[in-house]
Specification:
This protein is an alpha/beta fold and about 220 residues long. It has helices spanning about 15-25, 70-75, 85-95, 150-160, 210-219; strands at about 5, 30-35, 45, 80-85, 100-105, 110-120, 135-140, 145, 160-165, 175-180, 185-190. The chain has one domain (about 5-219): Rossmann fold (3-Layer(aba) Sandwich), CATH 3.40.50.880. The chain has a nine-stranded mixed beta sheet with strand order 2-1-3-4-11-10-9-6-7, with helices on both faces. A two-stranded antiparallel ribbon has the order 5-8. The radius of gyration is 15 Å and the shape is globular. It binds glutamine. This is Phosphoribosylformylglycinamidine synthase subunit PurQ.
């Protein structure tokens, strides 16, 4: 699988993401600076975690208006895979590639700890997990409280687009939502960090199958 990781001023998980993709059997990803207007020919575009532009205005708001985001939208439109983790999820909602918004955590503090999530459904991103599997992924965010209007939440639930749900909701997210896909199913945004649960020094290796799944889906 060929992939690109978009890097903004303030991104901090791009190397973790690249390592996870390599450990899962993907080719070494291209790192693409946010001012670029074109992406290399890839299967997956990943928007990594971090604090793009220092989270000024709202987390992800400035990054979503970067020149590279038009190419990311075109990639998604063509059916390419897009994965946004944490700050990446925030960028994808700000870019309207995913519905809803990530608001300040209900507890009003930064959360930095492993959390439990359940795999709600099979998808391009989750097909290697059993449905209902309970996983542990690290989290590190202050704006992870997923919010959307009632109609959008009904649509997400009705269309089976909630892929990951918290088993112990840390941030107040509506319906315990930890990760959702777009209507076509090729764009996933999630707050917990699967790329930080892929090798022995991590809390666990539950994240590896997400990246293996993408490598498998791309070949
Ligand atoms: N780890 C991250 O990606 C942090 C996400 C975001 N900047 C927040 O704190 O909400």
């Amino acid at each position: 699988m060929r992939s690109a990781i978009v890097v903004f001023p303030g991104s901090n998980r791009e190397h973790d993401a690249a390592r996870a993709i390599r450990l899962a059997g993907g080719e070494a990803p291209d790192l693409v600076w946010h001012t670029e207007t074109e992406l290399p020919d890839v299967d997956l575009v990943m928007i990594p975690g971090g604090f793009a532009h220092g989270d000024y205005l709202r987390a992800g708001a400035i990054a979503a208006r970067s020149p590279i985001m038009r190419a990311v939208a075109n990639h998604a439109e063509r059916g390419g895979f897009v994965l946004g983790v944490c700050n990446g999820f925030q960028v994808l909602t700000e870019a309207r590639l995913l519905p809803g918004a990530l608001m300040r955590n209900a507890c009003l503090t930064f959360i930095c700890r492993p959390v439990g999530i359940r795999v709600e459904r099979s998808s391009l991103f989750s097909w290697r997990y059993d449905k209902g599997a309970e996983l542990v992924f690290p989290t590190a965010h202050h704006e992870g409280n997923y919010r959307a209007d009632e109609e959008t939440l009904r649509e997400l639930e009705g269309e089976g687009r909630v892929v990951f749900r918290y088993t112990d909701n840390p941030n107040g997210s509506a319906n315990d939502i930890a990760g959702i896909v777009n209507a076509k199913g090729n764009v996933l945004g999630m707050m917990p960090h699967p790329e930080d649960a892929v090798e022995a020094i991590h809390v666990c290796t539950d994240g590896l199958d997400l990246f293996r799944g993408l490598v498998g889906a791309a070949t």
